[in-house]
Amino acid sequence: MPASRITQPLARDAMAYVLAGGRGSRLKELTDRRAKPAVFFGGKTRIIDFALSNALNSGIRRLGVATQYKAHSLIRHLQRGWNFLRPERNESFDILPASQRVSETQWYEGTADAVYQNIDIIESYNPEYMVVLAGDHIYKMDYELMLRQHVEAGADVTIGCLEVPRKDASAFGVMHVDQKDNIISFIEKPADPPGIPDKPDFALASMGIYVFRTRFLMEQLRRDADDPESSRDFGNDIIPHIVKNGKAVAHRFSKSCIRSSAESEAYWRDVGTIDAYWEANIDLTDVTPELDLYDRDWPIWTYSELKPPAKFVHDEDGRRGSAVSSLVAGDCIVSGATLRHSLIFAGARIHSYALLEGVVMLPDCHVGRSARLRRVILDHGVNIPEGLVVGEDPELDAKRFRVSEKGVCLITQPMIDRLEA
Predict the structure, then answer these.
(1) If I label 220, which of 30, 40, 256, 306 is the partner at 20 to 30 A Cα–Cα?
(2) How many other C-beta atoms are found inside a 10 Å radius of the C-beta of residue 400?
(3) How many Å apart are CA 13 and CA 153, to the nearest integer?
(4) What tens digit of pLDDT does each residue of 297-328 get?
(5) Backbone angles phi, psi at 393, to 5 degrees
(6) Is 307 annotated as a binding residue?
(7) Does the global pTM surpass 0.70?
(8) Which of 223, 55, 293, 247 is nearest to 150 (CA)?
(9) Are 140 and 267 contacting, i.e. CB atoms less than 8 angstroms apart?
(10) How would you classify the pairing of strands 333-335 and 311-313?
(11) 373-383 pLDDT, tens digit each
(12) pLDDT along the chain (421 residues), means of 10
C-alpha cells in the first residue's frame, strides 16, 4: 500500500505480544527469584516496562505478555502496574503464562510456541497486525513507523535491526540485505558477518522485534507446529523459512528510535550481563545520560507505589547526608552517609559514615554504619552489616560475593548470611 493511502494510525489495529519468559542466566543471582524482564532498572522501573511503554506510546492498545520462567514477580508487577487498559475502550492486557493450553504435558517450547499456544486468544481480538517483541531490552522506539514500513513494502515479515560494527556482530543474528533492505539471508552468530551495502563496516543485527499481518503469522505458526524437526523458535525456524520462501524486510532502528533533545544517539541496550546491567544503570547518573528518563513526551510507564519523599539528614563534618551525581527514589533515608554516582531504589536506609560509590541498590536495602561500597550491585532486601568494605580488595571480594569480569560485585542476602554464620 503506498504511503499516501495510509491515513489512519496502524497501531490501533495492532496487538503487541511481548515474549517475557527468558531465564536471563547471565545475570546470575539477580534472576534466581525473577525472570530477566522483571529485573529492576533505572531507579523506578522494570526492564519489561520499556517494551510495554513503547507499545503504549506508539498507540497500540492491545498488549499480551507471555511468561514462563520464575514468573511470579513479573506477573505481580504487571497486575499492579499495567491494569489500566479497559475493554470498554477496545483495549486489552493479557498475561499469558505457560499454562499447558495445547497439551497437558507441554510448556512453551520456544519463542514461536509461546505465541502459537495462545492463537485462540489473539484471534478473539482480531488484530490486523502483530508486533512481536522481546521483553528484556532497554530502548525507546515508535512501532507505528515500523508498521508503516511493513505495509508500504508489502512485506511478509519486517524485522527490527540495529546497525552494529561488523567486528561486534558475531554475537547476534545478522541480516544480509540488498540495497532496499530486503533480507537475502538470516545468519545466526556468523563468524564473518555480511556488511550493509551503504555501510560496509556495519552489519544489521536482529533486535528480536517482528511485525506480521496476523493472518499470515497464524498460518506460519500452524505450519511450524506441524513440523517435527522445528525447535518452535522465531530466530531459528519461523524467520529463516520466511526469508527463503517469502518477503522479509529489515527495519533500521535509527528510523524509529525516540530521542529527546537531550539524547544525541539512538539508545539500545541488552542488560543481560552483570557488567552491562551495572553500566547501564550507573550511566544514568551522568550529567547528560545517553538515555533520557525525564522525557515527558515518551514516558516509561510502570507500577508507582505511594511513597514518602527521599530524606537526607545530619550536617556535620564526616557525617553529612549527601548524594552527588546520583538518583535516589522515594522512601529512602540517607542518614549521615555519602553517595556518589549511585542509583538507589525505594526503601533504602543508609546509615551514618557509610560511603557508596558506583552502587546500584535495588529496593528495601539497608546499609550499616561505616560501610564502604564501590562498584557494587545490591539485590532486593540486602542488609549490609556495619563496617563492611566491598570493592577495595578484589581477592577478598571474590571469596565472599559474585564478582564480574570487570570487577563489579553482586551481593545477595544469602551471601551476607554466610558471612555472619
Answers:
(1) 256
(2) 16
(3) 18
(4) 999 999 988 999 999 999 999 999 999 999 99
(5) -130, 95
(6) no
(7) yes
(8) 247
(9) yes
(10) parallel
(11) 999 999 999 99
(12) 68 97 89 95 97 98 93 95 94 87 65 94 97 96 98 98 94 94 93 95 96 98 96 94 97 97 93 97 97 96 94 96 98 98 98 98 98 98 98 97 98 95 68
Q: How far is residue 152's CA from residue 243's CA, in Å, rounded to a whole number?
A: 18
Residues 6+ apart with CB under 8 A from 351: 335, 336, 337, 366, 367, 368, 369, 371, 386
Write the secondary structure of the chain as one string of H (helix), E (strand) and C (coil).
Answer: CCHHHCCCCHHHHEEEEEECCCCCHHHHHHHCCCCHHHCEECCCEECHHHHHHHHHHHCCCEEEEEECCCCHHHHHHHHHHCCCCCHHHCCEEEEEECCCCCCCCCCCCCHHHHHHCCHHHHHHHCCCEEEEEECCCEECECHHHHHHHHHHHCCCEEEEEEEEEHHHHHHCEEEEECCCCEEEEEEECCCCCCCECCECCEEEEEEEEEEEEHHHHHHHHHHHHCCCCCCCCHHHHHHHHHHHHCCEEEEEHHHCECCCCCCCCCCEECCCCHHHHHHHHHHCCCCCCCCCCCCCCCCCCCCCCCCCCCEEECEECCEECEEECCEECCCCEEECCEEECCEECCCCEECCCCEEEEEEECCCCEECCCCEEEEEEECCCCEECCCCEECCCHHHHHHHCEECCCCCEEECHHHHHHHHC
Kindly list the structural domains of the chain, giving each domain's residue range(s) and its CATH number in brackets, ordered by start. 10-285 (3.90.550.10), 311-420 (2.160.10.10)
Alpha-carbon span 269 to 35, nearest angstrom: 17
Length, in residues, of the chain:
421
Distance between CA 327 and CA 338 in Å, rounded? 13
Q: Is 128 annotated as a binding residue?
A: no
Give whole-number Cα distances, 5 to 139, 150, 151, 325, in Å: 30, 14, 10, 49
Is 189 one of the annotated binding-site residues?
yes
Asked if residue 188 belongs to a known ligand binding site, the reply is yes
Residue 206, marked binder: yes
How many other β-carbons are positioned within 10 Å of the β-carbon of residue 98? Answer: 19
